[in-house]
Structures are given as C-alpha cells and as structure tokens.
Amino acid sequence: MSMPLPPMGSIARGVTVALTALALGSFGLTAAESAQTRPHAAEPTHTVGHDNTALTIDGKPLSIWSGEFHYWRLPSPDAWRDVLQKMKAGGFNATSIYFDWDFHSPKPGVYDFKGIRDVDKLLDIAKEVGIYVIARPGPYINAETDGGGFPGWLLTQKGKARSTAPDYLAAADEWLSRIDPILARHQLTNGTGTIIAYQVENEYYQNTDDGHAYIQHLVDKARADGITVPLTGNHYGLFTKELDIEGYDAYPQGFNCSSPDKWQDLPDLSGEKKPGEPLFLAEFQGGAFDPWGGPGYDKCRQLTNGDFEKAAYENNIASGATMQNFYMAYGGTSWGWLASPESVYSSYDYGASIREDRQLTEKYLVNKRLGYMVQSVAPLTKTEKATVAAPENSALLRRDRRNPDNGTGITVVRHKDVDDKAEDTTHLALGDYPSVPQEPGTALTIDGRDSKLLLSDYAMDHQQLRYSTSELMTHGTFGPRDVALLYGRHGQDGETVLRYADRPEVQVISGRVKQTWDPASGDLRLNYRHDGLTQVRITPPGSTPLLLLLADDATADTYWRLDTPQGPVLASGPELLRTSAYGDGVLKLTGDTDKAANLHVVTGTPATSVTWNGRPANGALDSTGTPLAGPGPVTLPTLGSWKYHAETPEAQPGFDDAAWRAADKQTLSADNYGFHAGSIWYRGHFTATGAETAVKADATTGRGGRYLAWLNGTYLGSSDDATHHFGIPSGTLKPGKDNVLAVLSANTAHQQDWSADDSHKEPRGLTGASLVGSAEQIGWRLQGALGGEDLVDPVRGPLNTGGLYGERHGMHLPGYPDGAWQSVSLPNSRKGAPGVSWYRTTFDLDLPKGQDVPLGLTFKDDKAKHYRALVYVNGWMAGLYVNDLGPQTTFPVQPGMLRTHGHNTVAIAMISEDANGDGLGDVSLEAYGNHTTPLHYRDIASPGWSAAVYRAPRATADMRTGSRGARPAR
Ligand code: IPT
C-alpha cells in the first residue's frame, strides 16, 4: 500500500512544534508576530505538485480522499481532535477546511486567533493526527454561514465585494495578511504542517476582466504571503489560467431532502478534467443543508445515504477523479448567529457521515471502505477510460478505466437507472476473462442501488489479482505476509482469482471456500459466499503468503486500518480505532466502544503485546481476541425547576433610551451602527396628531426572523413581511404628546453572496417606518449587542449575542443574579405577555470518566404557539428554536460549551409573538449516545456574569425631553 501521509513518527516532532507555539503565545505575541519569530522546525520539506492525473507529493502521485470540516462550527479544540481522528480512521487522508473571516474579526483591524479561534492549534492537531489539509480561507466562503463568511463590518462598504473595488480589496488583504501567515507555516512544503493545497475564493464565476483581475490579485497575495502549495479553485474551470488545479463542485441530489428516496442521475464529470491537471471534485455531495421549515436532517442523510455515496463516489472514480472532497464529512452546529438564514437553521448536521453530535453513521462506514480502497490501490492515480462490452444483463451499466502503465483494470457496475431497486444478476467480461463469474450456477448480483468497483489485473503487493467479484477494502504487506480484506453484500456469491507460478497451499481458517486450481494458467479460483468472515491463507511456494479476509459488509465495517512507521495495523471489533503506535514491542491502540466488543489485531511487526487505551489487551493478537468493555450507564438530571423573568422594558413608554444610538445615518439598518448579530431594538418618537391609524413598517429580518411592534406600551403585533401595516388600536395615541413606537427586530443572520452581487448587504432590522394618517416624522434610536463591534465577550465572540435587554445585562450567563426571579416549572402554562421572557436553570453533571456522552436540549411544545427561543448553555448560544416553524427541536450542545464534570447553566430567551400566549413548553436534557473514549473534552474557559460588565450604568439624560433620535432617511 502506498502510504502517502507523513510517517506517524513525525508526531513527536509535531508536538515539539505545538509546544513552541504555546511558548511563544505565552509572551503575548500576536499570531502574525509569532509567525515571524517562530523558529524553523528542523523537518524535511516536501514538494507538492501535480501531474496530468493526480496530486503529487515529493513527485509521487496519490489519491486524495477528503472530507469537509469547519472548526468554527465546533468550538472545542479537543473536539477538533475527535473529529479529525474519526475522519482519519474513517479513510479520509485529507480534510478541506474553510477559514471563516467573520468568525475571527469583529471590527476592522481586530482579529482573534485564540481559544476556539486558534487555527494554529487546529493545524497542529491535523498534523498530529496525520491528515492533509486543503485550506480554504476565502475571503468569501459561502458555506451557509453569516454573510458567506464576510464579517459584519464589511457589509457597509460602498465597493462591490468580490471585485477589485479598492475598499473591498483592502479589507480582503487585511484578512489574508492575518490568516495566510498561519496557513503558510503549516504547509507540507515547509515540513511544518500538512496543508497540501490552498483554495482561492469560492464558487466564483465572474468571467469578466475584473473577475480575472480579482482572482489574480488573490493569487498574487497568497504567493506574496508565502503560500507555496498548489492553488486550487472550484469555479467551474473559469480560472485555469490563474490557478494550479481548477476543481469542480457537484451536488447531484440537490438540497431538497423532502423526497429522500429519489435519486437524480449520477453525473459523468470526466469532461471537467482540465488538460494537464487532475480531475478534482473540490466539493462533492456528502449530505445536504436543510432550510427553516425543511424536512430535517434525518431525511437529508437518507437522501445521501451510504448507497448513494458508494454509487456516486465510485461513479466519480469511473470518471477519472483522483481528488474528491466530500461536503460535509462533519457539519457541526451553526451556533450563535453563524447560520445564514436563507439556507439553514442552527443545526449544520448536513446529513453527513459524522453527525452533528460527533457520532458515526452508516455513511461513515461506507466511506471508510471506499477511502481505505483508494488509499491502497495506487494505480487509481493514473487511469484512462476503457471501452468494454456491456454486461450480459442490459439493466446494468458498467464503466471502465485502465492504468496505462501496469494494466490494472477498474470496473464500476450498477443499475443503468439509478432509481431501479431490483435485484439483478449478470455475467461480465473482466480482464482476460470473457464471462465472470466462472463458477457454474453463480452470478454477479447487483441488488437495488448497490454499486461495485471491481479490480482486475492488479499487482496486489506480492500477489497477482486476476480479478475479484468482491470489492477490495484494503490490502498491504504486514511483515512476512500480505493481507487483503475484500467484501460483498451479505449472502452474495464471491469469486476471486489469483495467479501463481506454482500451486500454492490453501488453508481455509474459517468459513467455506471452494478452490479450483488450473495448472495450465496458474489460476487459483476461490468461490465463497459473503457471510460473516471467511479467512483463507494462501502460501505459494517460495514467495510471500497471503491472508485473505473475505467479509460481508457488516463484518468489513468492523475493521479499522491505521498504519504506523513500523508497518500497517488492522484491528477489528471496537466502534472506533483512533490511534496506533509501536513502542518497546508494544502495539498501543486507542479508540472508542459503544458496547462490549472483542478486539482482534492483525499486524506484521513483532509486537509481543497490545494495549487498548493504555490497558493490556491480552489475546488481541490471538484468534481469541480480547474483550473490551462498553460504556457504563448514564443517568441525566431532569431540568425541573426554573427561574422566570419577563423583560421587554424597551416597549414601555417610560424606558430611558437616551443612551441608545441615534439613527442619524440616513438608514435604519443595524449594520451601519455596528450591530451585526441577533436582535435589534428600535425606539421611535413622534408627536401624534391624533389622526394616525396605522404604522407602516419596512423591515428585513432574514428568513426565520420576525419583528414585533408596540405603541406607547401597547402591543401592535408582529410580522415577517418586508412591509407591514400595524393598525393603531383606539386609545393608544397621545395626541400632541411624545409617542413611542418600539420595535424588536428578532433578526436571523445575513444573506450569502453566492452570485457575487452584494446580496450579503441586505440590511437587517427596520429599514423604514411611517405613519398612516399624518405626516409626522419619527425620530429613531436603536440598540444592539452590548459593545457593538467592541466585544465585551471576545471568548464567545461577535456572533454569540444580540441586543435583547437580557443579553445586554448578562441574563444568558452563568452567575447572573436570578435569585429574585419567580420559580416556575416547565411546561409553564401561565399566561404570558408578548415580548421577551427568560427562563434559567442549572444542573450538575459528573459523567463517568472516560466516556463521551453527546448531550443536547430537546424542546416539546404545541406548534400553535408563536414564539422563538434563544438557547443559551453556559452563556453560549447553542441555537435558535422557532416553535411554529421548525424543523429543529433538539439542539446538540458541543463539548466546549457544556461541562460534563461540573455546574451548568441553561438560559432560554423566549420571544413570544402571542398577545396572550402560554409560557415555555417542555425542555429536557438528552443523551444522543454513550461511548468509552480515551479523549478528554476540556471546558472552554469563558467568562460568567459580572456586575462590572453587565450592570448598565444609569443613563443621566431624561428620556422625555431632549433624547429624541435624529430623523432617519425616508
Ligand atoms: C457550494 C459552496 O461552495 C459551499 O460553500 C456550500 O455553500 C455548498 O455549496 C452547499 O452546502 S456552491 C454549490 C452548491 C453550487
């Protein structure tokens, strides 16, 4: 097997680098400064390039099997390690990562790369894990995130984003000047990291002079900043001149998950290969996003299930793709205001291989089989399309390729009609054999949406594989013998033919195998049924023996392969194998179990013993195996008693808004006043004539958002329309006096800019308001998150809170003094008032040590109630629940936010639109799974409530005189 990754031996050196970085950090250097001062690690440098068909490392081609991962959707460096280890063990040799400008920059010139934003640490972990990185720093990233990755402060720029407009380019360069040095020092080319490619921009298709000038500017900037790895794209091939490898994005199933059993055609993307470049699928569908009101992620996972992935990804191999990145491998959570509302709600589970709560799915196991295969079959890196006679059964389709150097054949067989779910059998020509399988009474079976990638004429280590109707999962030389693991669907027949100079000795260790030896050809033909595990030892006279493991799907899925510098390791049994390493004759394995399991290890090195998570695992090397315990049971506290407090003082006429920001900029849009996330309050003052009958309001809250209005303390109602007339109830106006119109704009985040037409600049909040029945002008003030762009809570960052009274006063935080609040239990059926009320509770957890129990909060309520709720856990906004819209009712809380050994605070801000609605429904703590694990998830140090920050200074101005805002633009 070609092991393209840097040897695991580099782990030790990687740790040294990480410690060096830490030491530098402790001197208070900024990221950019430490980039300059950081000593060059004495590590071998590498070259990264490409030939006509594949990426090359040190001149050697390799297949890239990559999964997309966004660290900013998982705010815990320990959990980064978890996900990257899961990806590596799951057959991914690379991960593609967007770096989100918005996540790092609250204000022009202000950047944060600490804590959950420490991308140096992220890239060190990638190196420690041994996974390559495709870095995608934008500046624009799309990604269903706030502004498509553009920071809030960029939204008020005059110049067109994603063009050569000078103000935009200056800002983009500011970001790149911060992120590029970090990326540069983690390049494989420096020997200091595992970055192998750098994507310029994202899905950009402005094929204009300015578009090319813009991309060229970004290319020049990257090179000037020390980026030496290949520059890649995903721009439909428009920028082949500027970029080294132009990739292609494809989501053949689309993003509507409501018909999850319907497949679209699988595309032949071979035409997207650019001359002299490998066929790179920069994003290929690994799931789908789901919008507000959508069918939910279980449906998306079904739409893009293991069968789909297998058929689609093998189809891509049949199209000649040697670089595939699956979007997403792990989606995570768009916590806070990360979710761009036109596409998604808080969960970014994406129906991906690894669930939002970090648990593995059926898709993951399918991906693992494929990933192991592409990493072990080196001839895949250079193939040409081959034309071969169609299968005997015309319902089936085959697509073939051949390696021109060594003749290895690749055949992908599936149903012609992707929606055909019949069980079909066939014979077909493979290699020199006109009709396979040869065994009378057997056939190749394609059941439903199965797809099979069959190899022929393959020099498999020391063996000559003529063909197999089983699929290869992995193979390699394990010390004195070769090992190959092949699989097929349970109950299907398999036929494998190997060629030898002399008749080998064949020993069937387990299962049933019929062997046929043809002395004339030297063919050893094995026939068997895929059923559990069939093991065959083949010992050819005078050459390397082969251990053949013939498994059904489910059995194959129990195998894990993680290589060490001392050779490959194959282990079966546990839910997950995370790491493998040799030391002093001991093979040290770490991993997880979700139930009791039996660990078997196949290795070639002279290990005398095995440890599992540091404990002796006697028998792991023998046929008996060693038993591994499953996790202990976990009981969770019930969230019984809550503290309740209704706020919304802003709606009351007597509220003092003197300290609020006057809307004096010819616009009401909140971004212009430095408020870029969450809810915005507006208070408008006018002198009523008495003839006013309605308020005409214009607002853009973003999809899923809502705005609520009060006049002189009387609730007028709510809307999500762009323009809405709020009727004025009689008796509400105060003719000749100051009248106060209060509007709470419960916004969602910003649009993306996928089409490069500045759509991310769509304003948030009120955009205008006028009175029906009089020409009186309204003077406005507005209020958003405490501090605006000057963050009061840089740990949780710019997207965690908005401008609710409770948020500005720290009611979302641990330690807020809620002692005087009313005690209630949930569901709370007391009649509430429209507007904002807070529910707070605390609970202690002490989960069993050495267990990973992904937790979340689940809401249950009557959908007829109209409200939204901001879900805060220990001060982190874990998500937005919209009771009457959905579909999300359960909110996984990421490990960095939740304390599994300690005190937790849940605070829920309920924004009710119902004039006489009930209180909050049921909220419970939920465990999504339970695993033993060697990993520790440390708490993220984050500030709690403090009087100094959150007890607002008393405003001195009298709100009834002299505090009226300037008149806004009409
Ligand atoms: C592609 C984007 O590049 C990526 O950021 C993400 O938004 C993805 O879509 C969908 O999840 S663009 C492609 C759909 C045309």
Automatic annotation (TrEMBL):
Domain Beta-galactosidase as annotated: residue spans: 379-559
Catalytic reaction list: Hydrolysis of terminal non-reducing beta-D-galactose residues in beta-D-galactosides
GO molecular function: beta-galactosidase activity
Signal peptide (residue range): 1-31
Record-listed E.C. numbers: 3.2.1.23
InterPro entries in alphabetical order: Betagal_dom2, Betagal_dom2_sf, BetaGal_dom3, BetaGal_dom3_sf, BetaGal_jelly_roll_dom, Galactose-bd-like_sf, GH, Gly_Hdrlase_35_cat
SMART domains in the record: BetaGal_dom2
EC primary class: hydrolase
Keywords of this entry: Glycoprotein, Glycosidase, Hydrolase, Signal
Stated family: Belongs to the glycosyl hydrolase 35 family.
Full protein name: beta-galactosidase
Naturally occurring in which organism (per UniProt): Streptomyces ramulosus
